[in-house]
Amino acid sequence: MEAVTWRAAFQAEVVPRLDAGPHSRPERVLHDLDGARSAVLPAEFATAGRILWEGLRRATPAVEEADAILGLDAGGIVPALAVSLASGLPYKLAWKVRVPLPGTVHFVEGHANRPDVFAYGIAPGNSYVLVDDEVTTGVTLANLAQALFRHGARPVAVACLAEDTRYRAREAVEELGLPLFSLTRVGGRG
After folding, report:
1. Closest CA to 176 of 151, 155, 152
2. Does the pTM exceed 0.70?
3. Residue range 86-105, pLDDT digits in tens
4. Could you give the CA distance from residue 13 to residue 51 in angstroms, rounded to a whole number?
5. Which residue in 11, 147, 167, 170 is a FRET match for 186, CA 20 to 30 A apart?
6. What does the H/E/C string look like for 21-65?
7. By the 8 A CB rule, do 80 and 93 touch?
8. Helix crossing, 77-87 with 42-59: angle to 10°?
9. 113: number of Cβ within 10 Å
């Protein structure tokens, strides 16, 4: 799937991380919906969710049959909520907190200082649209997708606000048979 820049003023950029640990990436993708540079208007939040959902539906009709949106801890919360509101699908969030809940799916965000991530209440046979704020290498989302498959659940597509094209994330995600839809691309390649 192609990235869509939904308005000329939407900004996403790669910036250095001043607190990068030994296992974390030395940079971060910032975008207008993360609230870092300025407050986000509710209409911008709603528009991003609608554009992501409509793009997913056009390119991957199977998303309409998904059981839930599954967002990743921290950065993926905002776009997961936006897509949930636009689609009417319930959302679930994967957290970097381990608790004793049923249906636990564990996966790794390898470039993070705290790499262990857990999705709870994952039902075998259910299908999920995976959502994050940015995709750089695609490894975290690929790890999540593989963990869902092992659990008997089915990821059907991936959506993100910003796709960093420097590290071939699209290829890593699409190798698993998952289409990737992004609002915009950064990084100069692709």
Report:
1. 155
2. yes
3. 999 999 999 999 999 999 99
4. 20
5. 147
6. CCCCCCEEEEEHHHCCCCCCCHHHHHHHHHHHHHHHHHHCHHHHH
7. yes
8. 70
9. 12
